[in-house]
Amino acid sequence: METKQEHKNTVGARLSNESFLTLFMIGVLVVLFGAACAVVPNFYLPQNMLNLITNNWFIIILGIGVTFLLISGNFDMSVGGVIALTGVLSAYFCQGANVSQNALANGLGLPYGVAVALALLCALGIGAINAFFIARLKVPSIIVTLGTMMLARGIGQVITRGAQRNTSLPDVFGVVGNIAIRGTSIKISVVIMVVLVIAAFIFERMTVPGRRTYLIGANAEAARLSGITVGRHLTFLYLTSALLAGITGILLASEFKAGVSSRAMGYEFDALVVSLLGGVSIAGGFGSVLGMFVGAVILSVVTTSATGLLLSPDWQFTLKGIVTFIAILAQRFALDRRKG
Amino acid sequence: MKLTDNVLEIRDLVKDFPSVRAVNNVSFDIKRNSVHCLVGENGAGKSTLIKILTGAYARSGGKILLNGKEYSPHSTKDAKDKGISTLFQELNVVDQLTVAENLTLGMEDTTFGFLRKTDKINKMVSVMNSLEPSIRPRQLVSSLSVAKKQIVEIAKAVATESDIIIMDEPTAAISESEIARLFKIVKGLRERNVTVIYISHRLDEIFELGDYVTVMRDGKHIDTKPVAEIQDRSELIRMMIGKTVFEAYTPKKDPSQETILQVRNLSNHKLNDISFEVKKGEIAGFYGLVGAGKTELARAIYGVDEYEGEILFKGQKLHPSPNKVIEAGIALVPEERRSQGLFTILTIRGNVPVMNMGKVSRHGFINAAQERQVTLEYIEKLRIATNSTEKEVIKLSGGNQQKVVFSKCLFADADLLMLDEPTRGIDVGAKSEIYGIIRRLAEEGKSILIFSSELPEIMNICDRIHLLYDGNLKASLTNGYDIDSEKIIHIVTGGA
Amino acid sequence: MSVKGVKEESDQLQRERSLAVRANIKRFYIYVVLALIVILFSVVKLGQVEMFGRGHFLSPASVINLLRTAVPIMTLSGAFTLLMISGYIDLSVGSAMSLSAVVFALMILNGFPFLLALVIVLIMGIAMGALNGLLVMKLRITPVIATLVTLSLFKGIALLIVPGGLSAIKGSAEKVMPPWINFYARKAVLLGMPWAFFVALAVIAILVVVQRKTILGKYAAAIGGNRTAAELSGINVVRMGWLLYVIVGFFAALAGVARASYMSLGDPLSGDLMELDNIIAVLLGGTAFSGGEGSVAKTIIGALIIMCVTTGLMTVIPAYWQTVAKGSVLLLAVVLNHLLVREKVKA
Q1: Of C242, C260, C90, C68, the residue nearest C158 (C-alpha)
Q2: Who among B77, B95, B115 is closest to C218 (CB)?
Q3: Which of B251, B396, C58, C271 is the most buried (most CB within 10 A)?
Q4: What is the model's pTM?
Q5: What stretch of H or E contains C97?
Q6: Which CATH homologous superfamily contains domain B259-492?
Q7: pLDDT at A172
């Protein structure tokens, strides 16, 4: 009897559980997409299609870090704060020094490149604080990262006095966030996002540290006994997540030519949602950045449809909650069924 | 209800697992208000029998009568409600509550939800007091030693009028003076209308404590006798191991003289000044029963637990951290394969290369084809029963899972392998396969440390046998035709 | 007794003694911290204002203001503590509070009598708690994720109820918010404090008693301390957990009513970060994250500490320092909690 069972599984068995779930979510995406085309007026426009992927680029970049941390069994809710912090710092560091009476128009006068490097360094600092509490003191990651989120955003608020810094900036400040590919409206940030996602996928599937992330999430004790230095790897993950958020912060600040302390409110939540929609399990050891990407597109479809159906933007929260909930249940159902 | 003479009657009890009959037509009685000891080697069937009594397993055949009535518990809680309480090794007390609160947990008297101090509490506290007056009812359980926590559990079982209290190796984790106190309490339970089923490997305890003893071997009931009728330890030991013929052990032809591992004065919370040497290509066995310190020794060498003392491997000092130890060339097959040895939600391919990813990757990039190749090699070499490298490890049988763990460690290119209970929970066929693998590895020049509580295992393949008892290395013997298994049992059960 | 035996006995005594010292530190540190904070804010502006005079941290007006603003967290954090003692968490409390405030304000605006509006909102609170209980206890979704889902749900509904164009339910040209809405939480009744304050005191007293002297408190600690032992003793963990979530929902709703009454409006964003304040209070109060240990009374002191810090800082530093201050306080509270509590090692 056992051989019959095994034979049945051979075809499906070649497909890993992650791939199965990603395909499942793609299926969900197709269904939702179809429904949207049918129900929402003007949904099926080429520009809309493109926007589905491009208008979420920052969430997707954040999602990379958040997904890897979820796979290892941890949260990172500080990413939104890090975006705000690096954006503000990138502005502050390169604002002209002593050019104005207004304190918010004076900065440190450093060259843009240096400003960016220093801002990213500060982002890494936040990541290091996360790593210290979580990897070393072993404090629950949800609490710590909420704290560092406030810390990061708070520093941004102090530097901008609760507002923003958008004057006396060098011209080069607004370049990188606004250049588009020649002939299209696709910003280079989107390209960066695609590159990062591909790199992340390669990392996750094909590299040793990527594999280590899954091992730690699957069984931290076995990982330790297999010679993996769990603390060091978690530190690496938190630093990377902070760096990704930092890069996003630089790009966004450049796009809007301002370092705004209220930027990216709630982005950490969105990053979490798209990871969950993509099939990442908080239990650890399971999930994929590709899935997260699909999850981001699903979220785009849902929010764009909502706008298209003339629902007010206030529907966002409710929709996100409902969609996440349904996704969690559906994924559980699909996986249970598969296990037979 | 008329009280029968026997509180428990076991008739033709059978328990079958997919590949083995763990309990084979066992029948015996347990007399009311006695201390009834249960002894037997590992794999004798004691733990399975106990699990049936506590409702963790369902029996496959036969019947059990408790107080004359059919007894078929479906959970530990159900067993407790029906009168059989168990003292497990993982204590079931809530550290953050007080002694009194633990005693009354689940049985409080309340008025509109308010906890009332009633006679019930007083009764329980007085039971507690009569057992051990130094435990104050308002003390937090977290401040108690393990021994005192045990007493709290006993008090609760007594106060709730359990007919039977099962104690599973209760002295494994407590000190000498605490053992004496425990014995006093256990003996006193007879006057309280409680029968104790006492499981222990420490034969002295049987003689000191027991009224009756039941010996099991290979799933069968050997004998049940009043302890008074047993002459001495040797008789008991003979009952336990019977006329088992050990597969002839063949000594190595050319034993190497090169020392590969030197342990000097190793001590920690459990271990006491342990020193020994292992030669290259040697299979060294560490034999002892529950609580002897085998796993603690393995973990100390592996760098997981702290220790004082020195360990030299290939002449170099060994750094106490798993990844440095692995780098130096030692790999561990842990005791609990599912929770410590395997990544159960991953596939075989996901598990096997883990300890030596450098060999299947270049510059950090994994070569999936190589991974698959290596996994197939080990599937073939160790004969793992699967038709795909992508099978989830959780779906494999125990024996095959253990083979995956072996593959993982072998792939680490270790010169010394530590195996902690390598064949626990594995069927006979897979067992001898694993022994074959171990012998082959030794022939190839690898050194093996086996930590086991199964004597036949140790006797069949080990060149040197180290005997552990209570954290001490009691004796080191060279295996050979004249090895005296009775003497071995004598030493590991506390004899001098 | 062998030499080893003697050593073991003295080891045991030493352990018991150091545990006793630790226990004493655990009992009193929080009062010390509160006192230090109060002294700090009383002293820091002494150059500019008179002690107890206008603008001083301990002036009657300031104290009344602080306590009035503290009413919602005082109402809620006791129940929150009970839930955390059992090892579970609820991140949706802030949104539950906002939603309750919005619904309450809406009803008052539309002419509902106070008591009716209150009862309806409290029932809604029970429903919100029951939903959390369903997700966590029955469907066994990780508490963090489950309550983040309900957080977005409650917040979303609150935002949808407020008509477009307005930031809160506060009345308009057509309808005016009856001024008596604030009799509950703002109007001085006794010693300058409103009804809501005394209700909060009563709630605290009740929950302290519940935690220490009733079966609910004991079972919460048992479940958080050793779930297996609790189950073996016959405790229905699913039902208990569900009940605790419902209680948290109920008091979140009550807190929302107090907030709406105090501000005379229903703000769908008023509860933002309330869960963080609660978590800080709970951390300061020495509750373990894995559960089993905790104290309602100490959490309340922790809540007072966080309120003092929040309002005190407002007098000393500009508003835009609030977030970084709060983040730092949270991280400090995490460190403090780490030093105080020996977490159970996850098996």
Answers
A1: C260
A2: B115
A3: C271
A4: 0.88
A5: helix C93-109
A6: P-loop containing nucleotide triphosphate hydrolases (3.40.50.300)
A7: 85
